[in-house]
Design goal:
Helix content is 53%, strand content 9%. It is an alpha+beta fold. It contains 14 helices and four strands. The protein has a four-stranded antiparallel beta sheet with strand order 1-2-3-4.
């Protein structure tokens, strides 16, 4: 028990150290510094980045996730601003030390490469809850790690700026050989976490009994205008969990009060219905795979495909940005200077696409309830 507490304390201290490294870059005029005001453990939820790394890049799944809320104080007027950080924890068995004392680290002895617990890897970043945090992740931090005060300086001096470099070291998107060996084990751990959550709550993890309509995957209309339902409750739960994973950078509340605040005109409803019709015809294969999946793993892969496919019609700009960033990541392989920037852009592009699809689909859900005749007319016309 003492060892568990020591490792947990060291893990939290190492996480906080990385949060402060981010804050030094994103909030340079923060006065006395930020304070941790909220801590939430979310072990049953995959962050969009962890979801992408696993299902696109075969990276091991995290064994835990935290969301930390940090409060920044403006030293000029005393005003405060809350910023959410998303944190994924990974374990690399091959990096574990067996030397004496490694199981009882001090709080400040560090985690990851160079730390006392090298087998514990942490991926810390601000959530994509605002334009400034997106800009910070995709541009400001990569520049700060090179000591560049602007993109022009990085270009002119070939990635070596004259300023002080940030100490922050991000986890790569791609798994190394050691982590690849942990892939199967991480999947088993993840399945155990989900099973344990279902046993404790009687339903899927963080499931309030409402399936919601956050993405047009398990609620797409078939040609007759009826909703396509899952026949297996476990499969439906898996798809729901997958949906939450994609949009959780900015969770979408699916209650009726929230929907009443959404205003949709008849002309917009027609556009939304047309998009759904295109999804029905162009994403049929993805939809069938999602309906036919029989395990959490299969359902999440199918859901990922459905989200990306639907995104090209719901959010073409964000979809194009994701495709371009993936292409840039592939072309920058082997170039350390450009690869980090490309990884950051892929990370952000996927998170933004998932959030856009979720919000778009919610508007479509409201439009369908308000103007059902518009959806019926468009769907019948496109049969």
């Amino acid at each position: 028990m003492i060892s568990v507490v020591a490792i947990h304390n060291c893990m939290n201290e190492g996480t906080w150290e990385r949060v402060l490294q981010w804050e030094k870059v994103l909030n340079k005029d923060g006065g006395a510094g930020p304070s941790l005001t909220k801590f939430m453990g979310r072990p049953t939820d995959l962050s969009p980045k962890a979801f992408f790394k696993h299902y696109f890049l075969n990276h091991p799944l995290p064994f835990d996730r935290h969301d930390w809320t940090v409060t920044r104080t403006n030293p000029t007027d005393g005003s405060t601003n809350d910023v959410r950080y998303v944190i994924d924890y990974y374990h690399d068995d091959n990096a574990a030390k067996e030397e004496e004392g490694s199981g009882l680290p001090q709080m400040n002895e560090g985690i990851g490469s160079g730390g006392k617990i090298q087998s514990l890897l942490v991926d810390v970043r601000p959530a994509a809850d605002s334009i400034s945090e997106i800009w910070g992740r995709a541009i400001k931090m990569p520049l700060a790690r090179r000591g560049c005060r602007s993109m022009l300086e990085c270009v002119l001096f070939k990635g070596h700026g004259s300023g002080r470099k940030s100490e922050f070291e991000p986890l790569p998107l791609m798994p190394n050989e050691s982590l690849k060996e942990s892939l199967k084990e991480s999947q088993e751990v993840w399945e155990n976490i989900q099973s344990d959550a279902k046993m404790k709550k009687g339903v899927g993890a963080k499931d309030d009994g409402k399936s919601g309509e956050a993405c047009a995957s398990d609620s797409l209309l078939d040609g007759s205008g009826n909703e396509t339902k899952f026949g297996n409750g476990d499969v439906a739960s898996a798809a729901t969990n997958g949906r939450k994973a994609v949009i959780e950078q900015q969770p979408v509340d699916n209650n009726d009060d929230d929907e009443q605040k959404i205003v949709v005109t008849k002309s917009e409803a027609k556009q939304l219905a047309t998009s759904f019709s295109n999804i029905l015809s162009q994403c049929q294969e993805s939809k069938e795979e999602l309906q036919a999946c029989s395990s959490d793993e299969e359902c999440k892969r199918a859901f990922m495909g459905m989200t990306v496919c639907a995104g090209q019609f719901m959010c073409p700009l964000q979809h194009s940005s994701l495709i371009d960033s993936l292409s840039n990541l592939e072309s920058s392989a082997g170039d350390e200077k450009n690869e980090e920037m490309a990884e950051a852009k892929v990370d952000m592009a996927f998170g933004v696409l998932g959030e856009c699809v979720a919000n778009y689909d919610k508007r479509a859900s409201v439009a369908k309830k308000k103007f059902p005749e518009v959806f019926d007319e468009v769907l019948k016309k496109d049969k």
